[in-house]
Design a protein that fits this description.
Strand 2 and strand 3 form a beta hairpin. With 120 residues, the chain is α+β, with helices and mostly antiparallel strands. The chain has a four-stranded antiparallel beta sheet. 26% of the residues lie in helices and 22% in strands. It has a single domain (8-15, 22-53, 63-110), classed as Alpha-Beta Plaits, CATH 3.30.70.2340.
Length: 120
């Protein structure tokens, strides 16, 4: 059974609100240890590459989905997961959150801001 939209985030992590636009899955376990393998974020985002606005197209597996982006914050690998993924494919949303839960990873609400313009 697939949970109703808007309830799965709360069910998987009661500390996150249903209004979170983005969640960050951090490569740090609840015990404070660095999650391995070191390329876990790229692997997870690669698996999720087919889920994108407009659906999968030829060659779309060669780039990350805008709804699931690997990044590094400080020295911590993260995957930024946009809430639009849940609206498009609830099972994919549940997959990434269950990945975090199953691996005891820290998950936080946040907003990814664009990089500032380069200094001249």
């Amino acid at each position: 059974m697939i949970p109703a939209a808007g309830r799965s985030l709360q069910r998987l992590d009661p500390m996150l609100s249903n209004s979170a636009k983005e969640v960050f899955i951090q490569g740090i376990t609840q015990d404070g240890k660095t999650f391995r393998p070191s390329d876990w974020a790229e692997r997870l985002a690669g698996v999720m590459s087919q889920f994108r606005p407009g659906g999968s197209t030829p060659g779309s597996h060669l780039s990350y989905s805008p709804w699931c982006i690997p990044t590094t914050m400080g020295n911590t690998k993260c995957v930024v997961v946009n809430r639009e993924l849940e609206e498009y494919e609830p099972m994919a949303w549940n997959f990434v959150l269950n990945f975090a839960k199953d691996n005891n990873l820290q998950v936080v609400e946040a907003c990814l801001l664009p990089d500032p313009p380069a200094a001249k």
